[in-house]
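[Automated response] Your request has been received and processed.

Submitted sequence:
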Amino acid sequence: MKKFFAKLSVNAVILFAAGITRAQEFENITFTNRTFIAASFINDSEGWLADNNSKLWHTVNAAQTWDSVTVSKNFVLLQFISSTNGFALTSNAAYKTSNGGQSWSELSMPQNVRAKAIYFLDANTGYLGSYGNIFKTADGGASWSSAEIEGVNILDFYFTGSSSGIAVGYDDGENRCIWRTTDNGATWENVFNEENHYLNAVYFVNETTGWAAGYYDRAGMKEPIILKTTDSGATWQKNYRYTGISSDGETLTDIRFKNELEGYALSVHNYDLFTKDGGETWRLVNDTDELNATPVFGLYKTLSGLNELYLVGQKGTVSRWE
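Generated structure:
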């Protein structure tokens, strides 16, 4: 396996995006023409990107320079938990690395399982989400136990500690879309099941405050929705729903906050949202004059980052919200 190569220096273009905040910079960085599908940052400086041509990119200086390695796999999800240990999904398999992404080994998967979500707490303890099951490993993916959730597609996880976690997805039959565990994943309780809600992503700002994003199906029209919890996921309230949708509708695919006030919700096409008041108000990114100069339509594919948010997507675009 090749080691990281092709270090690229980036002359960043700084856009002062008043629609987000005049006091902060929205930095756009482009260094390749490939589309980024997945991203994972372990702090504000070090992260990895997976593109659509079997290449993994790595930065240790907040996206100013990048190394890359060809991995011969198209990763659709990435999760690094340290500078050396990481996990990834393709469309039909799960992988792990112990050398910072230079080489990958395939995890032993339960038979006929196609995982849609992956979340590891450490090098040994992790979860896979699929249709009808949540799988847990305590030995780094060598073996798995199962918590059956019949009829539910699990699409994302977030854990606020070793014992407490949230899983989101959708259930066409009984409207169940948020599940919670408080016993290390041994059992999962359905905590939100309102009709026509479909959720793709969940993120917690702290141990008590979390967000979930997806869409509401109004007679076949998808309307972006955001839910909020302030009690560690025990209960959820409707925070935002966009009803002025056109065409076939839109869905939110990811949500992430850089602090308790500032957050971003990612859409498939042209309805990216941001807040700077803790979700009291959400604004459409493409309604801001400063950002209209930069095409937003379907630009970003995934979110990552901690105190700084990284938005990555088409044509090698990496945007950093400081």
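Summary generated for your ticket: Residues 1-24 have pLDDT under 50 and may be disordered. The radius of gyration is 19 Å.
If you did not submit this request, please reply to this message.
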